[in-house]
Specification:
Largest sheet: 7 strands, mixed
Order of helices and strands: HEHHEHHEHEHEHEHEEHHEEHEEHEE
Structural class: alpha/beta
CATH architecture of the largest domain: 3-Layer(aba) Sandwich
Number of strands: 14
Bound molecules: pyridoxal-5'-phosphate
Distance between the termini: 32 Å
Oligomer: single chain
Length: 404
């Protein structure tokens, strides 16, 4: 009997990818075993974060790294680090950011629901650029001069959401930022694969980069990490670690926290509410090591095989025409794309029927407006294939509906 049976919570088949609302992915046994091992012992959390910093630095090429409860938690810490620096009084005051540089400049087209994390630290987002895509006149997005025009005494950082379509290109933004001595925070939560992106944004001059641990890396759902400049990581650590300790009893590892640079010991910081456990830190580091060892090519072949097996199971059935996208591109997550054989039949009803079925199957519905169903292999295992094939062949398009 699984823990979910005991709780009366049905498990589901996740063909959508590592969505948080669907509980993310499934971890490898090596990861869950490392987490169980971690749970059996006690450690000083600063020592564990110093070890995490060393491992993340080696993998990303950054000076330092830090683990928190998700990429979003990391963004909160990154913003707090850029607001307070190593000023203990400022750390203590956040999210009240009055009297310190407190503006974080961001391209308007990059605004998204996760930028709550930046605002939660106390920063005010200053938007630039007009993503003029609907009036018919917009061929450009924000430009470097627009970001530059927004920089002033009050600027604490530039926030950049990395994406294949993000403009202006990051190296142009980091070059501008370094001329003005302003740090650049990069949200790279979902920018894997390709694996090379683990190093790319740091190499392109970002000061702090946030990755999600619970997405393609395959770590705990409530984990993520920062990599970047040592002094900013130190500030993030000081605003995240539990610091309820007498000063003479505090022995932080010097590789993470350089006490000679501080005027005192800060109290609990704004990041305290984004705390992470030793189990998540160990799980993330284990998953990250396995992710790097597997490599893009083997990972891509594993995903492709799952999709080809579904495709083979659907061969000869009438409901959909099926194709694989991204089969040749090892730097992407390939997907299986299904179009109803009868274009009068809309996929929305079919997608909802899959959710309501037993087992419940969640597909990627992001292209339903184009009448396409997308199957993402990230969270699938071999045992999921027969029920997916059964569900996809259980209804056939007839006129403008689905007949089961
Ligand atoms: C997923 C995501 C996040 C949040 O990551 P978590 O690890 O779930 O906190 C932030 N930003 C972007 C762009 C994302 O895709």
């Amino acid at each position: 009997m699984s823990v979910y049976d005991r709780l009366g919570v049905p498990t589901l088949i996740n063909a959508k990818g590592t969505a948080t609302r669907l509980s993310g992915g499934r971890m490898r046994d090596e990861v869950t075993e490392a987490m169980a091992d971690a749970a059996r012992h006690c450690v000083d959390m600063a020592d564990l974060q110093a070890a995490a910093s060393r491992e993340i630095a080696a993998i990303t090429g950054a000076e330092a790294g830090y683990v928190a409860a998700g990429a979003s938690a990391c963004l909160l810490l990154a913003a707090a680090a850029c607001l307070a620096g190593l000023d203990v009084a400022r750390m203590a005051r956040l999210p009240d950011a009055r009297g310190m540089p407190n503006e974080i400049v961001m391209v308007r087209s990059q605004r998204n629901g996760y930028d709550h994390a930046i605002r939660a630290a106390g920063a005010t987002i200053v938007e630039v650029g007009l993503p003029d895509r609907h009036a018919g006149s917009g061929v450009r997005d924000a430009e470097v001069w627009e970001i530059e025009a927004a920089l002033c005494e009050a600027t604490a950082a530039i926030f950049y959401v990395a994406d294949a379509n993000a403009l202006p290109d990051l190296p142009l933004v980091t070059a501008l930022a370094s001329r003005h001595n302003v740090p650049v925070i990069v949200d790279a939560a979902a920018q894997l694969p390709p694996q090379a992106n683990l190093r790319r944004f740091v190499a392109e001059g970002a000061d702090l980069v946030a990755f999600s641990g619970g997405k393609v890396i395959g770590g705990p759902q409530a984990s993520g990490f920062l990599c970047g400049r040592r002094d900013l990581v130190m500030s993030a650590a000081l605003q995240h670690l539990d610091l309820d300790v007498f000063e003479d009893m505090w022995r932080p590892p010097s590789t993470l926290i350089d006490r000679s640079r501080m005027k005192g010991v800060p109290p609990h910081g704004i990041g305290r509410s984004a705390k992470v456990g030793k189990e998540e830190i160990v799980g993330l580091l284990t998953a990250l090591r396995l992710f790097v060892e597997e490599g893009d090519a083997v990972r891509h072949a594993r995903w492709l095989e799952l999709l080809r097996n579904i495709q083979a199971g659907l061969a000869g059935t009438a409901g959909f025409s099926v194709r694989i996208e991204g089969a040749e591109d090892r730097t992407c997550v390939p997907t299986l794309v299904l179009a109803p054989a009868d274009p009068q039949c809309r996929v929305e009803a079919f997608i909802n029927a899959l959710i309501d079925g037993r087992p419940s199957i969640h597909v990627d519905a992001s292209r339903r407006a184009q009448n396409l169903i997308v199957i993402n292999p990230l969270c699938l295992r071999d045992a999921d294939i027969p029920p997916i094939v059964d569900a996809l062949t259980a209804r056939v398009p007839v006129d403008d509906g689905w007949l089961s």
